[in-house]
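Good morning,

Attaching, inline, the backbone tokens for the sequence recovery test we're adding to the shared suite. The designed sequence is right after.
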């Protein structure tokens, strides 16, 4: 059962029954047939459908954002920004994607070579609730342009978002897209289905291991994005005001429920106290409240169980020696709110250092110097994003080169962008989304040689 609960009030919004075996089979077969017709269209025709989808997103931005805010608590301004970003992706892929998928001639001297990019077929995406539109779009849009068909298993707490997506795609003429209302056990059966050629997951490490195991068992291509505990390094020549502002913005976006949020603030000793003061000032400006209120900058967490898990991690870290400078207490009243929280004295061995804290909680970590900061940053099983703050570009690039992460920002926070590949290393997953690299994850790169 998919159950939508308004996280701002704790009240149930809607329920949606799971698809039974017959419904799952009907949807898979329908999308498999639709994919044949979709693949039969030219790249330019498929690109035109993506532009039509972008138009629909822009014209319905307020409505779509409202559904997201109601179901998972994202402040309205941020929700509208997510919808706009999806439209931007559609237009970018429509404009630049065909060139990335065109066959490429290779001069082989005695023979003529041709590199072709052909769709794998039907793809299965297991998607999270924290960016209920964007996560789907960044997987689906490049894969659809390539001629693949898309099946989505969305998170059970955002059924309205899932239904809205199906309607939007179908109205744009993209019938090779469907949502399966299924549970984890049923997802394993979909991965095993011989009509499914690949699977993409954005989720937890536990879910990643399960999906990778199922995909490997059936020799299916997989791409995994499994979150992170992103380190943000503040060096001794950083602009402290800028660093504090960026770190705070990144940490509190989407109530901290972001894979690439600035989770571990690693600050060298020379500027530690200045940064500490600046960041406390910034955190105190955050407005926790009703996500439909324009003044709100931090909304509720998406689910009660997620808030409970986060609070347990905070309390465990404090018990292990971390000092809570602000927040850290469960508020009374309705909704799944969690206060903006700052932990100091965080060290390896504490959940606030080792694990991913998926909420508005930041960890302040002192480093002796830049070398120690890099060591602390890499002392993690994760490797998704990282950032470096320094006025010396050459120095910042050198430090960035030492960081074990798939994405590094300098004097800014990490964000996904259609023009750049996105993904992680180590236990943050494998494979890439976005850019030409993401476009080629779910295609058959075929070599043809004519002599």
């Amino acid at each position: 059962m998919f159950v939508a609960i308004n996280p701002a009030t704790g009240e149930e919004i809607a329920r949606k029954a799971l698809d039974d075996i017959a419904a799952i089979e009907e949807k898979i077969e329908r999308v498999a047939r639709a994919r044949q017709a979709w693949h039969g269209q030219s790249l330019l025709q498929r690109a035109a459908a993506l532009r039509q989808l972008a138009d629909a997103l822009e014209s319905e931005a307020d409505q779509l954002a409202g559904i997201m805010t109601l179901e998972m608590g994202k402040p309205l301004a941020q929700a509208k920004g997510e919808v706009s970003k999806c439209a931007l992706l559609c237009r970018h892929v429509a404009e630049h994607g065909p060139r990335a998928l065109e066959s490429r001639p290779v001069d082989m001297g005695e023979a003529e070579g041709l590199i072709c990019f052909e769709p794998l077929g039907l793809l299965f995406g297991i998607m999270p609730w924290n960016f209920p539109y964007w996560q789907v779009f960044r997987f689906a849009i490049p894969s659809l342009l390539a001629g693949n068909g898309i099946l989505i298993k969305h998170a059970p707490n955002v059924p309205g978002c899932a239904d809205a997506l199906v309607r939007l795609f179908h109205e744009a003429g993209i019938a090779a897209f469907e949502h399966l209302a299924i549970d984890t056990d049923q997802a394993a059966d979909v991965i095993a289905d011989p009509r499914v050629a690949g699977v993409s997951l954005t989720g937890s490490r536990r879910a990643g291991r399960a999906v990778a195991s199922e995909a490997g068992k059936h020799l299916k291509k997989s791409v995994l994005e499994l979150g992170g505990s992103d380190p943000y390094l503040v060096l001794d020549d950083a602009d402290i005001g800028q660093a504090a502002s960026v770190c705070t913005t990144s940490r509190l976006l989407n109530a901290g429920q972001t894979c690439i949020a600035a989770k571990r603030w690693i600050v060298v000793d020379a500027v530690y106290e200045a940064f500490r003061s600046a960041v406390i000032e910034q955190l105190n400006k955050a407005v926790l409240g009703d996500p439909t209120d324009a003044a709100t900058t931090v909304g509720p967490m998406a689910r009660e169980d997620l808030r409970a898990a986060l609070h347990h991690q905070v309390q465990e870290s404090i018990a292990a020696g971390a000092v809570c400078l602000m927040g850290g207490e469960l508020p009374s009243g309705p909704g799944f709110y969690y206060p903006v929280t700052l932990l100091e004295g965080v060290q390896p061995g504490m959940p606030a250092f080792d694990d991913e804290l998926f909420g508005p909680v930041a960890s302040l970590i002192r480093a002796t110097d830049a070398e120690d900061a890099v060591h602390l940053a890499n002392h993690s099983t994760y490797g998704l994003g990282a950032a470096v703050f320094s006025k010396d570009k050459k120095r910042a690039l050198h430090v960035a080169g030492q960081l074990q992460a798939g994405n590094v920002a300098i004097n800014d926070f990490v964000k996904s962008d259609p023009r750049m590949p996105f993904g992680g290393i180590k236990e943050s997953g494998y494979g890439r989304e976005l850019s030409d690299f993401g476009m080629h994850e779910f295609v058959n790169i075929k070599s043809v040689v004519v002599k």
